[in-house]
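Exercise 3.2. Students should predict the tertiary structure of the chain below and write it as structure tokens, then compare their answer with the key that follows.

Predict this chain's 3D structure.
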Amino acid sequence: MSTLNFKHLRYFWMVAKTGSIAKAATQLHLTPQSISGQLSEFADTLGVELFRRVGRNLELTDTGRRILSYAEDIFSTGDELLEVVRDSSLKTTITYRVGCADSVSKLIACRLVEPALRLDEPVKLVCREGRLASLVADLAVHRLDLIIADRPMPSHLSVRGYNHLLGESGMTVFATAGLAETLAPGFPQCLNGAPMLLPGEDFAIHQRVLQWLEKHQVYPKVVGEFDDSAMMKAFGQSGAGVFFAPTVIAAQVCDQYRVVALGQVASLVEQVYAITTERRLSHPATVAISKMARDRLFV
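Answer key:
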């Protein structure tokens, strides 16, 4: 294959988005047979399997998901081009791609990134979420401009990247008001025997939480571990258990998840890093994020 057939790529993209050939055919005003034939030809040309059938629907293979990610970028850029052509008065929009590690609080990530949308030059924000190693791989091939993580880039990864500490925060323990009423008085003694939701092993804070509990001879009943901070808070909101979150967002956590703070642990520190390919931050959106962290969030 010497060139990419963009017509085939668009057909694949539409099938992947709709989940079926019939729906894609309706969107593209073509027959299902035509779409199916073009899709097969595209897969044969690439020499890979793009979909697997699950019941009456099509499910992307791992290779298909990677190709879809590129297709999203390609057609998104194409749409931007058409917008600029239609209205020459539009300012050039900067596409800024941010990767957020699963282990980082989404409330923190949102507050950090939000200033990038208020720059003088219009910014289109593209956010990806995933495990740190996968995000670093995307950073290496310039598919991301910035990663927000709770630890520096792992040293064993052969990627040229730089760690920039944005800030750090102590931790607070939260629970629903109903659950809090059932606990013994005093903190942290109230956590003895309490149902607890722990951050998973992918969190940099995971081992520190266990060490803190052991140091203070506090023995909760661990009812769940979570690799996603938002899901852990959602279970906490349901009353499933007490949970930890950074103190800098304590007010937001209480308001959004309708929980109360049981106590603060200043010695239990979570750090937040920006990982970039720049030794010195120069991208205007990255500079805005760094300023937000330094001047407001982690003051």
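Discussion points: The chain has three domains: 6-66, 84-166+273-297, 168-270. The chain has a mean pLDDT of 90.
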